[in-house]
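To fix ideas, we give here one paired sequence and structure record:
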Amino acid sequence: MKRIEFKASSDTLIGNLFQPDGDTRGAAVITGPLTSVKEQAPGAYAAALAKNGIATLAFDHRYFGESEGTPRQYENPDQKIADIHAAVAKLQREVPGMPVFAVGVCAGGGYMAGAVAQIPDIKAFAGIAGFYHDVAQSKEWMGDGFDAAIERGRKAREAFESSGEAETIPAVAPDGERAMPMEEAFEFYGTARGGEATYPNYKNEYAVMSQEQVTAYDAQTRAQKITVPTLLVHSENALSPMLARRLYDNLAGPKDMEWVTSKGQIGFYDDPAIIEPVAIRVSDFFVGSVNL
């Protein structure tokens, strides 16, 4: 593993580049779940992909982990996509001459879909247990709460711009207000399994102003601009298989879908019994896609 630094706008981003011991078959950039840092799921997949010949860059997006940027813990999908642009350029300098691939896990699958739709140098894409944001579906699920969430985020952003202080809520918690109101999310980020005790760069916080951007982000419309080979790996017990199927239908290029067995979502983050075979499948798909 090699620690690297690169710029996204004026902020310095910190990444870990996992390199194969043997022949390098390609290079990939990976982005992970909501509020995650490079040492969590992105690092687990980066290490597994490197074992299968894919040099893989896991990095902290601006506002998170070791990377710069304020406010802290600010989820902004379009800025994350801009970070991926910068990461791809850095990866091309670090591993010259190799085809570049893209991997997104959970919410990172939806964000990476937006990046792949924009970045022509990306040759193939894999979404793993992705949450593929769908504004129309969110409006149906949330009702009046959809506009209320955007409005609350807007007010929090304006308050930050005025005062320099960003309102935050827990990313996960057993009850009360939190960004991820799922028991399974708390079992990972709220415990030593995946939280601050094990990954000190992670913070169990979420900037409320994120709601303005995250609620309005739509991966489904961006999928219609994805023409490169794409593999979606999902489980019927993972988060929103319906949205994974919808994204698959919206893809404009060659595509494949792999359904695997899991108890839920977070096994995709840290269970070697899931990660290792998925990494083999993804690596082989990437290498095969170059010859399509």
